[in-house]
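Protein Record: Sequence and Backbone Structure Tokens
======================================================
Scope: a single protein chain, as residues and as a discrete description of its fold.
Tokens: labelled as protein backbone structure tokens, with as many entries as the chain has residues.
Position: the record begins directly beneath this header, with no further notes in between.
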Amino acid sequence: MLISAIFSIFAVGLVVVCFIFAGSKYKLFIEENKADFQFLFMAPASLWLIDRVKLIERLSTQITAIQFKVAILYSAGKQVPQYTKMFLAQTISVILLCLAGGSLFAVLNGGDVRFVVFAIILAIIIPFVSVKKLDEKMEKRKQDIIIELPEFASKIALLVNAGETVQQAIVRCTMMKADQDHPLYRELNDAVVKIKNGDSFNGVMEDFSKRCGVQEVSVFTTTILLNYKRGGNQLALSLRELSRDLWEKRKAISRKRGEEASSKLVFPMVLIFIAVLIIIAYPALRIF
């Protein structure tokens, strides 16, 4: 009971102290960089704690990998440090809620230390789970881009073959789906804006490839940059060949997603089977 009470006072006290010292200092920072991060109500306390213990400086090596993923996922540009900090704040917010919640449950259940132990174990696991979710988002984004890329490449090939320049073809195909919230078209919209502003086409395409961070996009942009000056049939032919390879990858991803969806249905189906079995067997057992 004593251990649970001490831990509860420490956990809840830590959250309260962080909120008191944070005040309204981070209000504007959170508003400008909230993106799709969760637990924003806890963000001030978490951000103050990050600054207070100098977490980013102490874990600079480990955070570099997170920064790379955040930069690609959120197309952050100059906001990469801020978004990385918000990601860390989200993770710390979950840890604080877990510790505070576990300690309160322990006190409410008569000082059961098991709740405290469980909360500590969860708090240790949470950072690894957060990074894993970031990896899963990266993989989903990559798959979404690969699924859409062959269709885009095919349209570019058709337009170039019909006499359009590469720049005009890219702008036209992007504008057709400018309103779609898709990772490929988000990056293409930025590229189109730069093309319209008169930026170097080579530089725009190289920047587009870096921001996507997908090997297939790099191959696509390299194919365009190697052949666009020649134009006409040569570029259209290269894009059609690339498009065929991309369609095969799209089919493979679709099959993989279908298999994953089927495997996720196995557990609910087992539960339904057990429930039906109980419903049928119970009356029969009552008779005996």
Remarks:
- The mean pLDDT is 81.
